[in-house]
Amino acid sequence: MFTARKKIAKEKGQEPDSFEEQVAQALFDLEVTNQDFKTDLRDLYITSAQQIDVTPSKNAIIIHVPYRLLKGFQKIQQRLVRELEKKFSGKDVVLVANRRIMPKTKSGSSKARPRSRTLTSVHDAILDDLVYPTEIVGKRVRYKMDGSRTLKVCFCPLLAEGFWQPCVCEWFQ
Fold this sequence. Notes:
31% helix, 3-stranded mixed beta sheet, alpha+beta, 3-stranded antiparallel beta sheet, 5 helices
């Protein structure tokens, strides 16, 4: 029997919380009821989900997916996010891949750390996941006198007519 439990895979010994089960149930319902998603969602599952406060009046849902399944989710991401935002009453939904940060190698160690596992590389990849399907074309870091940093990200969304339009978004760290 197929249930919503097959739509979430946790590490051994961990049980999903109630919110993760709600997200898994929403994915399962979309797979069962919507013919557009039936074949696309069949082999896809999530690893975790969490709800965060963006502003006091606005919440967002971050859905973590396995890195191997990210391309499958990105094929249907726009339609899937639209449907999930309807189910969760207008909350913003974001899909992010699970990535691993490896520690720096010690001197004399023969194991080399892959570039894709460095802290900077993982943070850049997460930022790419957040703004998908747009493409990041530039980044600037501004250091203030009090030591705080502002990361300005420039990206270009593709409009329906096929023209690129530049946009600027600021992220604070």
